[in-house]
Design goal:
single chain, Porin, 7 helices
Amino acid sequence: MENVEKLINLLELEKIEENLFRGNNYQAPWKRVFGGQVLSQALYAAQQTVPEDRCAHSMHGYFILPGDISQPIIYDVERTRDGGSFTTRRVRAIQKGQAIFSMSCSFQKEQEGYEHQVPMPQVPPPDDLLPDYEQAQTWEATVPEFYRQILVDRPIEFRPVEQFNPFNTTNQKPQRYIWLKAKGQVSASKILHQAILAYASDYNLLATALLPHLGDVSPFDMQMATLDHGMWFHQDFDVNGWLLYALDSPSASNTRGFTRGNIFTQEGKLIASVVQEGLIRKRRKKE
């Protein structure tokens, strides 16, 4: 999926019945359904059942089972509540008769209210940084398959502030700053920009929780999977422009890593916040 147009095609779900939608999968080289794809498709499915004057302000999803990349996903939307200002939906993503993902999301009319935000961290601008796949070219020849699976052919360009190297064995502070934007042009649809940012928000979270443990783990020896993912949209934004993803992981325990993130425009406006908890543990040896 080398550009955002291919991601937009995945978001154009087929309506098969009232409140029921079918989505296809990106045929990822790692042979699993990417969690960000399910997040974005579920949000987009819910939005199709909501009045046009309302956009998402929050979503929280649980990943229940691994998705089968060879099977389409059915999104079943429950119209929980339609209120005067807020609309609530629940979505189940289904394969082979089983829920693989569930999400609650809320939509709101645009309204005037109080405003404040935390300041954006002071980091180098994206024009001074290389994309992550260029930063990683020093180890591409050593592990070409790993390089291709995690870095190549993505609809989002990422420019990490910190040098990207998954083979670093020095423990680091659990904090990262990454610029991101869509590869290609996205139309003015606010719904589409939210779904694309939901997709992009699933990158780099669990990797941040691993940073204090790099001396104890290997990327080839780790079992990692997202357990749940929450996201709040604060302000309008444009994924055609650079956005700063400021990530930190305050805790890891009981084989779970917890990471949170704030997303800012290049001008310093806080437009979204994210939290995620995921499984991070050494692979169990087969008996």
